[in-house]
Design goal:
The chain has 169 residues and is mostly helical. The protein has 7 helices and no strands.
């Protein structure tokens, strides 16, 4: 299925999407692509808000703000994502061991799936500024991320240990 259809389907059945991706010919470059694509879209989502902030406070230029955002989102965020994935994998070992690539897939896919909401939030921040509605929409984005991440982690845990449980019964 196409990337956009999978993203749209992730809001209805995130576990199925992550399980289908994990069952396919999954390799680390594909998972890394999901992370870098999500980071690129998050960077783009920040542009309207950065433009508004530079207009309201010209002491820091738009280019300086863009450079800082580029460094943070495209260089630091991927490293943090890998660190969070490692911590998630360690935490999941308490229940069942799951392959690291599957944990990274669930995390990176959840981030990629919520980027359309982040793009919408970026547009709202440009139109409305830092108001309560924009901040409340941030909670919607965070909730969607946690929902997709939880369902994805559950799917890869079932996928990693599905045949074992059937053999025991």
């Amino acid at each position: 299925m196409s990337l956009m259809r999978n993203i749209a389907r992730s809001y209805r059945a995130p576990g199925e999407v992550v399980a289908a991706l994990a069952r396919g010919d999954l390799r680390e470059p594909q998972v890394l692509f999901f992370a870098l694509l999500a980071c690129g879209l998050i960077y783009v989502a920040q542009w309207p808000g950065l433009s508004r902030a530079a207009t309201l406070d010209p002491s820091v230029s738009f280019e300086q703000r863009m450079g800082g955002a580029l460094f943070a989102v495209m260089f630091v965020l991927p490293l943090l994502l890998y660190a969070v994935a490692a911590l998630l994998q360690l935490g999941l070992r308490l229940f069942r061991p799951v392959p690291g690539v599957h944990v990274r897939l669930a995390l990176f896919w959840a981030l990629l799936a919520v980027t359309p909401l982040m793009l919408l939030q970026g547009g709202l921040s440009a139109l409305l500024g830092p108001q309560g509605l924009v901040q409340a929409f941030g909670f919607v984005v965070a909730g969607a991320f946690l929902y997709i991440l939880g369902a994805g982690l559950g799917a890869v845990m079932r996928l990693a240990h599905g045949p074992e449980q059937k053999g025991r019964g």
